[in-house]
Amino acid sequence: MKPRFITMVMATVLSSASVWASDMSTNTSMGDVYVDNSGMTLYTFAKDSDGKSVCEGDCAVKWPPFIAEGKSSEYFASTPGFSKIKRSDGSEQWAKNGMPLYTWFKDKKQGDITGAGVKGVWPLARADDVTVKLYNNGQQRFLVDSQNRTLYTFDKDQQNQSNCYGDCAVKWPPAYVNADLTKDGISNIKVSGGFSIVKRNDDTYQWAYQGQPLYRWFKDKTPGDTTGDGVKNVWHIVSKQP
User: Fold this and answer.
1) What is the pLDDT of residues 214-242, one digit of tens each?
2) Can you tell which superkingdom this protein's organism belongs to (predicted)?
3) CA–CA distance, 20 with 144 (Å, rounded to integer)
4) Which of 9, 75, 134, 209 is the most exposed place for a label (fewest CB within 10 A)?
């Protein structure tokens, strides 16, 4: 089944919160992300652990560590959630929520996100609260949840409204917004890049992209599976061309 491509826009859907930005972040086709001193996109590495980088050698050539120096030192030192970790060579690297930060050698200009989702282990260092990510399987990039489970849209939904309930929602579980984010109200959740939050009939909240609610598929078993794409010609992955 040929994937349906939805153009990712830079405008923010302001249904739940306003965009947050700073000198150390920029807007991309996936929303607001943190950047280094040169304005290049920052990423984290899923194989790292809290406070420790395992990206050395050739990995660090392709994914240069974001060393704590320059104007970033003043900004990130006073920004909650950021800290410094010590690398094996003694240098200090910035980390977000304990996860070391890197750039990607194939990004050539500000706003590039060509490293997003590479091998499913290099997510963007987002500057908002959106937990939806990109997954790159080597052939295409598409939206996934925080666990790399593929996300889909449903043609029978309406703009900012889900019509998938009952047995439908069993087979196609909604991409719920984590309760840790909603506990203080959705007005405090920062979104950007066309992402928004829709309220379901049961008063739960679901992620949406360009007004289209997002779902998983119960037959997808491993990260990056796309077995739900094209089901009954009404379920589609959300692909983003590199």
Assistant:
1) 999 999 999 999 999 999 999 999 998 76
2) Bacteria
3) 23
4) 9
